[in-house]
Specification:
With about 200 residues, the chain is an alpha/beta fold. It contains six helices and seven strands. The chain has a seven-stranded mixed beta sheet, sandwiched between helices. The longest helix has 11 residues, at about 115-125. The chain binds S-adenosylmethionine.
């Protein structure tokens, strides 16, 4: 998948021009998850809508995307406590390891190839501080059979990928979603395990 080419061509059906409704709900309903001092990493941030929303309730937010085009566009509207950088989540600098309280996941996990899911989990585990969390909207699609990206993703597959490095703290269906995604978005919080048994 050539993400840069898709962005340059304007072929970005995943971009809804606004942050995830699930994220807005979480900020309202579970403010304790967010913190003025917290450092947040947002993989596959695209144009950065979620990053800007998170910046309102976080100390610092790092948006990362492999597409130079998406990052350049995101940078045009970047609050002071935000950095947008072109980064491959499978090749992140060691200086970022252990730096974040939270990873905010939204349609990155379902966009990468299924054989890379375990590597995604390990990469997010490395970024987080002890007791850090992956919080996210997981786009699961039990009923439709397209082959992506986003790739067909089942809740069980999310669990299988994360369970080696994280423990699930809660999981609920998003109360509000982008139109067309109703019933297919799960809000999940995974807590980082101290040891991943390697
Ligand atoms: C389905 S899009 C979602 C974008 C954004 N989260 C949104 O909801 O608008 C997936 C994003 O992941 C990015 N991406 C894919 N592979 C990546 C990688 N290895 N490292 C960083 N970003 C990646 C793509 O460029 C794209 O912006």
């Amino acid at each position: 998948m050539d993400w840069q080419q898709r962005y340059v061509a304007g072929d970005t059906p995943w971009d809804k021009g606004m942050c995830s409704p699930g994220l807005k709900d979480l900020i309202q309903s579970k403010p304790v998850l967010f913190g003025d001092d917290a450092r947040v990493f947002a993989p596959g941030c695209g144009f950065g809508h979620d990053v800007r929303e998170l910046a309102k309730v976080s100390g610092f937010v790092q948006g990362a995307d492999i597409s130079e085009f998406a990052v350049a566009r995101a940078r045009k509207e970047a609050p002071e406590n935000v950095a947008f950088d072109q980064l491959d989540i499978f090749d992140l600098p060691g200086s970022m390891h252990g730096s974040y309280e939270m990873v905010w996941e939204h349609t990155c996990f379902c966009a990468i190839a299924p054989e890379m899911r375990q590597q995604y989990v390990e990469s997010m585990w490395q970024l987080l501080k002890p007791m850090g969390m992956v919080l996210g909207v997981f786009f699961v699609d039990p009923n439709r059979g397209f082959d992506g990206p986003p790739f067909l993703l089942q809740r069980d597959e999310v669990m299988a990928a994360f369970s080696s490095h994280f423990v699930l703290e809660w999981d609920e269906e998003a109360a509000t979603s982008y139109p067309g995604r109703e019933g297919r978005e799960r809000l999940m919080l995974f807590r980082r395990l101290a040891s991943c048994g390697e």
